[in-house]
Amino acid sequence: MAKKPTAPDLSVLSHEEKDTLILSLFARLEALESKVNKTSQNSSKPPSSDGLAKKTSSLREPSGKPPGGQAGHKGTTLKRVAEPTNTVHHPLPQQCMRCHSALLLEQAEIAERRQIIDVPSTVFDVIEHRTLAVTCRCGQTHVSSFPSDVTELVQYGPNVRALGVHLTQGQMLPYARAAELIHDVYGLSISPATLLAWVAEARAALQTTADRIADQLHAAPVLNADESGLRVAGKLHWLHIAASDTLTWYGVHAKRGMAAIEAHGILPNRLGVLVHDCWAPYWRLDDAVHALCNAHLLRELAYVKEVTGEQWPESMMQLLLSANRVCTAARRQQRTLDASDVAAFRTVYDALVREGEAIHPETKQQPGQRGRGKQSVAANLLRRFRLHADAVLRFISNPAVPFTNNVGERAVRMPKVKQKISGCFRTLAGAEHFCVIRSCLDTLRKQGHGMLTVLQRAFVGNPIQLTA
């Protein structure tokens, strides 16, 4: 059992020692309060860490409109199809209900039509391939050949293989549940091991497409990057993401930092803009033009505002949000902001940073201390605003740069769902299969293709090509 720390004897301490002790206690108290008060709404902590007592605060401003559909909103409903699969005619009585005369049924006309849309209750199809043999009068026997993709005595076709991979890699179902669903719908008994083999086949069929995605992202003018922890074979690995509006790439590596970045080869030696969350290794990519995720900064400003009650965090939040609204309107009009407008935003930005730094000056290094002195949360945030002002405001001067890293963060969500369902990837090969397949599915989904169609085409050897 750990010993309780004993309080120091204040009577034997000098005034300088007492001052040092008090400052250290205040620093520990601030660190503890900071840890307790941080949530997913005011920091980069994930929502799952908030617990049951979640706050409902949001950076979104109320619109003033009532919830639900607004007046004048055009709704949608089921529409009848022109050519139904089947028709059912409901018969008329043979006689008139009033005079009991025989009705002229051949003159009956359709009074009203109603349609029921449903999925067919079906079982699987079995297509038997047969070769033919014939012997010529000269004695030569001729035997026809099977297609190149018909290699086994009995085998599964591309549609069911695509469905199995789609359920496990696209819809994130565990292998056993995916096998159960296929059996319930189609009556096919497929083992989880078979599904696992299909995943490996899909990875091999899509590897070339994934490589092309990586090449296109390396040359992309704007690229969003992010990373997140991933459990593989019981150990911590890292999922690395590179994404744009039309492309998504996933890679897994045992390391989080530059070793992984250099091994994957997408981010180094790029001349375009790199949007990220200010993680330190990204700054070592000297060739890139950096842009920071303002959603992260807004959450941190919200936290400093809650803790200090000062005005400058709120003013900085309003400045960034106002600038985003102005830039969004300019993009819709397909124009860029004037240099004077960009300079005006920068002037207000610099003034707010100076205002904050006047209240939270950096702590100076103590004699004999190594590195920077311990800073408050506000001082660290202000230092980031000062050192990386160009990256924070990149979205104002370059209309192609997004306000947030949302493209990269959205790409993280589905792998996290997969991990929550399965707990972890049991093998590194399984994680790599997932990264390759998911890169292709998410990319081609962005480019307008259905994920099931992507896999069906891959299994027949005719993968869908990327949009240039």
Could you please describe the fold and organization of this structure?
- With 468 residues, the protein is an alpha/beta fold.
- Among the domains are: 197-289 and 411-459, no CATH class; 294-361 and 374-397, no CATH class.
- The chain has helices at residues 15-37, 158-170, 175-186, 192-218, 258-264, 294-308, 312-332, 339-359, 377-387, 389-392, 394-397, 406-422, 428-446, 451-459; strands at 133-135, 141-143, 222-232, 235-243, 248-253, 273-276, 289-292.
- The strands form 2 sheets. The protein has a 5-stranded mixed beta sheet with strand order 5-4-3-6-7, with helices on both faces. It has a two-stranded antiparallel ribbon with strand order 1-2.
- Helix 7 packs antiparallel against helix 8 (339-359).
- The longest helix is centred in the middle third of the chain and has 27 residues, at 192-218.
- The protein is extended.
- The model has no long low-confidence stretch (mean pLDDT 88).
